[in-house]
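Lab meeting, item 3. Inverse folding demo.
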């Protein structure tokens, strides 16, 4: 009998959509007053991927969705729902998920988007896990995708060096044995909106947005950092205990890739050595809601996260929002 509670749902396929264009720290040195040394030592980021003009968020979601469905051996017609987490979708409406639905031919799926910044993927997965638990869906496609380079202020060195574009997708179905999502939790606190928000799109910008209608992202990184470290630890402890486990049972910490220093602090507080932490922030930067599915995908492809192993994931983002889960693969 394996340790921990029994799961409700299980990930049976993973896929990603990654832009080809690489923007390195050296490239950024030519754009703003920054250095590879500053970016690497403060964040752990060496390069990030950026979408090309004319491309859409859904282009990468569709790619990720097709790969996840192929691995899961699930026909798009079998999907009951498509839940897509994004704050940088194709249009203000309709939801980006309907473009995915149309492209992959998932005619029987209801499709909607979830907005929870960098925690979006966990929020979408929480929705999906709950639907499966309630018996309202059997197979769900969950996507996290962000093209935040389309809304960063390229003159603001404090934020433009941080973000990258990507999409990640999973197919979720009912668990049949001890493999699956053992615990999942999400949370929000609207007291800190002033520390991380966007201007330019939305009714709040009617009285104070950018003149040309562009959307910009604003962040007080230092303050966000402080809150992130505290909430990530609290959430990690919560989901590990909810799963009926102890931190020492965890094989891999696969957290939101926002900053290597935040990740190291979280691992330290959980008593997990860095050899048990999966990092790909150096290649992609902060890809927001795509970060966790992209990291899970690479950890699996690289043969690190093996069948039967326990993964702890924690996320934090604007809102504030946060979430965590423990998954047995
Ligand atoms: N290059 C060079 N110098 C810079 C840069 C840069 N790109 N950016 C800022 N600096 C300078 C600042 O101006 C400041 O200079 P000063 O001391 O002369 O005033 C100095 O570097 C230190 O700046 P801080 O902001 O204090 O740097 P910090 O060590 O806090 O690192 C960072 C900044 C990387 C943003 C960090 O605070 C962080 O990672 N925060 C959390 C991010 C996060 O987790 N966000 C949540 C998810 S995002 C979402 O939800 C959309």
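The presenter then showed the designed sequence:
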């Amino acid at each position: 009998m394996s340790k921990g509670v029994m799961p409700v749902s299980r990930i049976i396929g993973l896929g990603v959509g990654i832009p080809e264009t690489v923007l390195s720290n050296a490239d950024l040195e030519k754009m703003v007053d920054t250095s590879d040394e500053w970016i690497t030592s403060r964040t752990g980021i060496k390069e990030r991927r950026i979408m090309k003009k004319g491309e859409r968020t859904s282009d990468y979601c569709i790619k990720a969705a097709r790969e996840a469905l192929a691995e899961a051996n699930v026909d798009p017609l079998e999907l009951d729902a498509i839940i897509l987490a994004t704050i940088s979708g194709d249009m203000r409406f309709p939801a980006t998920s309907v473009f995915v639905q149309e492209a992959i031919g998932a005619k029987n799926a209801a499709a909607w988007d979830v907005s929870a910044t960098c925690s979006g993927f966990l929020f979408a997965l929480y929705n999906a896990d709950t639907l499966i638990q309630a018996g309202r869906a059997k197979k769900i496609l969950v996507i996290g995708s962000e093209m935040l380079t389309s809304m960063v202020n390229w003159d603001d060195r404090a934020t433009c060096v941080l973000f990258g574009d990507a999409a990640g997708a999973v197919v979720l179905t009912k668990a049949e044995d001890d493999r699956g999502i053992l615990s999942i939790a999400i949370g929000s606190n609207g007291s800190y909106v002033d520390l991380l928000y966007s201007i330019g799109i939305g009714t709040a910008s009617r009285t104070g947005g950018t003149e040309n209608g562009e959307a910009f992202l604003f962040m007080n990184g230092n303050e966000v950092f402080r809150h992130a470290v505290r909430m990530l630890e609290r959430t990690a402890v919560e989901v590990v205990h909810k799963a009926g486990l102890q931190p020492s049972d965890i094989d891999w910490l696969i957290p939101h890739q926002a900053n290597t220093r935040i990740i190291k602090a979280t691992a330290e507080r959980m008593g997990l050595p860095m050899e048990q932490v999966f990092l790909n922030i150096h290649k992609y930067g902060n890809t927001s809601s795509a970060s966790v599915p992209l990291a899970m995908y690479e950890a699996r492809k690289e043969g690190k996260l093996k069948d039967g192993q326990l993964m702890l994931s924690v996320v934090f983002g604007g809102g504030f929002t946060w979430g965590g889960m423990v998954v047995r693969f």
